[in-house]
Amino acid sequence: MTDRFRSVAIFFLLPVLFYLSYALDHDPGFSKRRSGDLLYQLIGGAQEVVGDTFFLKADSYFHGGAEHTFSAEEEHFHKEGEEDHDEDSHQEAKTVLASDWIAAVNHQVHITKHRHLTESEIKEMLPFLNLSVQLDPYNVEAILATAYWLERHLHKTEEALGVLKQGLKNNPTSWEINYHIGSIYFKTKGSVAESTPYFEEALRQIKDPEAPEAAEPTYFLAEAYAAQNRQAEALLVYQKALTLFKDKNSAVIQQTIRDKIKQISQESQGDLASPDPQ
Amino acid sequence: MRAVWAIARLVIKEIFRKKDFYVALILSMAILFYAAQLKFYNVGNITRYLLEMGLALSFILNVVLATALSARQFPAELQQRTCHVILAKPITRFQFIAGKYLGSFLASAACFLIFYAGFLSIVFFKSAEVSPAAAFQTGYLFLLNLAVLTAMASGFSYYLTTSANVSITLVLYFLIGAYGTTLKEAGQSLFWLSRILSEAFYYLLPHFEFFDIRVRLIHGWGALSWHLVGFLTLYAFFYTLLFLAVGWLGFRKRIL
Which of A42, A48, B28, B245 has the fewest CB atoms in 10 Å of its CB? Predict the structure, then answer.
């Protein structure tokens, strides 16, 4: 490469780089994520990658150190103690052993099965969940998982609320975080009045109000209204919830909602029949 | 044997005379003591992350120390022309290689044992539950790991400069350590030349991941069978001899 060619290349490259840096700096999505965080300024997106790695590490801890593909299946969060392989895993293990002696030694040296942490061991995931949430404050999945373990298994309700509220500051449009804050106020703390604005906000943030994920927030909003004697609003929201629980597996909840609608309707008819003397 | 030991003793003295070891030790202890004070969401007695950090620090720092120590032995002697003085005495080139290797390995092993003792004391003070057999095997297998690694860096040092040797040895070590289990599988989907290379790496290079059972120790999976430990000892012995033979082939007729 001649010096002249190099000079011309630099001449054209510099304005392109300048434009790119300007464009990124003025991109609202990009700028929002930078948020004046010193660590983000220094290592940029790598911080989020490291955060996600810690989240996977927490998942690996949950599975007894075994590398495990993260699965959001509900059953993974509830089973505890050692688990047997399923048939596919047995078949896979046999294939590995048959392939060569190095794989066979690795199979014996390393962990090839997994077990879930017991109730007393769950706290061991916390350092990695904490790092994950600190390093990637936009990872809603990590925020929800941290709050879940803190609240459900370690009974640290205030800490779980702290994680969720901090998460909400960084992710104000997340309906999931709003819903989980509302749930903790409603179910665990029994603060119905405090839960209501979070359920309302969760429903506002769900873009499609007819989407299946709107079903639970709608139901709990109705419950919150009912608990506060806001019967007219509760009735409307229960009716909405009934339309959202559509599938066959929701028969029980559908019946519960129907019963509640019936009860509220009867109560309001009774109120009309015997008006308050004052 | 006395000649070999005399050379080895000089190497052992060297590592404790230089600052590298002390800096690494103080750094890792400072990190561990800081980490031990951390509280997560007001939940006490969390220990596994500390075990993980302690083992990772002592493994990684000792790998770097051992590689640097072994890799610089021969090039430094050559540069300072002290190897002429040593070889002028009734010491054969084989004894020189064996002495340099033995010294590098014993010095690295001593460093590791000091780190490991520090780690075990933290385990004791934090009342972490670890299986004594697994703790012994973790330390023993890492010593085997150091034996192969120092032999590799020692063997390569008769062909390469110190910086090239350190880079190549560490790259191979971390590559095999991280991808040793999947290297062959990963190569299947590659271009034929890459596939052959990945298979050659898989079968020819020592599988350092065999010597890493940290997950077993940290997560309470228990110790390995002693037959397997015996097999791994022979495996490490084989590769140690192989790398020393490679070094000897390069050095035996070399004009100094």
Answer: A42
